[in-house]
Design goal:
The complex is a heterodimer of chains A (about 110) and B (about 120).
Chain A lengths: L3 E4 L2 E4 L5 E7 L5 E7 L5 E9 L2 E4 L6 E3 L9 E3 L8 E8 L6 E2 L3 E5 L1
Chain B lengths: L3 E4 L2 E5 L4 E7 L6 E7 L6 E7 L4 E4 L2 E6 L4 E6 L8 E7 L11 E2 L3 E6 L1
Parallel strand pairs in B: 2-11
Antiparallel strand pairs in B: 1-3, 3-8, 4-5, 4-9, 6-7, 7-8, 9-10, 9-11
Classes of the chains: A mainly beta (about 110), B mainly beta (about 120).
């Protein structure tokens, strides 16, 4: 079955650590996206990539980094520069101008 | 950039009644308006969408209306059932090959259908 997989489901980070969230899709989608969701709030765009080896900052890119070396994969690194990283992170993919398919999310908690 | 506002933030309805969620957007270039349903601990799922050349679209118990002049669009759920309980998000995008496919989301509406 085609789909989009995020791992891990839960992640705990110590202060000052970098952590990487995985996002893999086998839908042959060109575009991939990372959104952050805080309790009771909407989704805010962190980074997006329309094609392999290219990505753009979204509305809240500070403290995050991404790479897009393969079409199937779009990992997100939450760096120590992100002052409030505790949130639910959602990855999505789409054909160039198509609807999004979301993963099940990664809940990141700073301990 | 685009700004999407969504109301109400919570909505409680009796089973069998209708639910209406409203969104407004700011960017007149936006031309694509999807609605997503998110169940607890899961990613959002697309339930219906509408493009700017259409005023209304219906899919069984769900309908969406768009007023381009007023820059607002609404989701209507009729004959609500307990499984409709979830968080609903509206979104907008100036979808084109030049502008890309970024979605700007509203703040979400938590819908509770009481049996």
């Amino acid at each position: 079955d085609g789909g989009i997989t995020q791992s891990p489901k839960y992640l705990f980070r110590k202060e000052g650590q970098n952590v990487t969230l995985s996002c893999e899709q086998n839908l042959n989608h060109d575009a991939m996206y990372w959104y952050r969701q805080d309790p009771g709030q909407g989704l805010r765009l962190i980074y997006y990539s329309q094609i392999v080896n290219d990505f753009q900052k979204g509305d809240i890119a500070e403290g995050y980094s991404v790479s897009r070396e393969k079409k199937e994969s779009f990992p997100l690194t939450v760096t120590s520069a992100q002052k409030n990283p505790t949130a639910f992170y959602l990855c999505a993919s789409s054909i160039q101008l198509g609807g999004y398919t979301f993963g099940s999310g990664t809940r990141l908690t700073v301990v | 950039g685009e700004n999407v506002e969504q109301h109400p933030s919570t909505l409680s309805v009796q089973e069998g009644d209708s639910a209406v969620i409203k969104c407004t957007y700011s960017d007149s270039a936006s031309n694509y308006f999807p609605w997503y349903k998110q169940e607890l601990g899961k990613g959002p799922q697309l339930i219906i969408d509408i493009r700017s050349n259409v005023g209304e679209k219906k899919d069984q118990r769900i309908a969406v209306t768009l007023n381009k002049t007023a820059k607002h669009f609404s989701l209507h759920i009729t004959e609500t059932q307990p499984e409709d309980s979830a968080v609903y998000f509206c979104a907008a995008s100036p979808r084109s090959f030049a502008a890309g496919n970024k979605l700007t989301f509203g703040g979400g509406t938590r819908v509770l259908v009481k049996p």
